[in-house]
Amino acid sequence: MNNVINLKQFRKDKAREAKASHAADNRVAHGRTKTERLISNTEKKNNLKNLDDHKLDKDT
């Protein structure tokens, strides 16, 4: 037989898990030092520049 599930408790548990997941994402995004943020921003800029430099122009 199947177990009986309390839907109110299920919804609360699901909301808690979503909130915990969101908090973990925020800790990753905002829990870095200034130098770590600067390094990741410069790496991102360098990667985008590298991609743009290697594009093939189809106009010519």
Describe this structure in words.
The mean pLDDT is 90. This protein is elongated. Helices cover 73% and strands 0% of the residues. It has helices at 7-30, 34-53. It is mostly helical.
Which quaternary structure do these chains form?
A: single chain
DSSP strand count: 0
The percentage helix is: over 70%
Low-confidence stretches: none
Looking at the structure, what is the overall shape? elongated
Radius of gyration: 23 Å
Label the structural class: mainly alpha
Strand content: under 5%
Count of helical regions: 2
How are helices and strands ordered from N to C? HH
Through-space gap between termini: 70 Å
Query: Mean of residue pLDDT?
Result: 90
Main sheet summary: none
Break the fold down into its secondary structure elements and pairings.
Elements: H1 7-30, H2 34-53
Q: What are the salient characteristics of this protein?
A:
single chain; 60 residues; mainly alpha; elongated
In short:
This protein is an all-alpha fold. 73% of the residues lie in helices and 0% in strands.
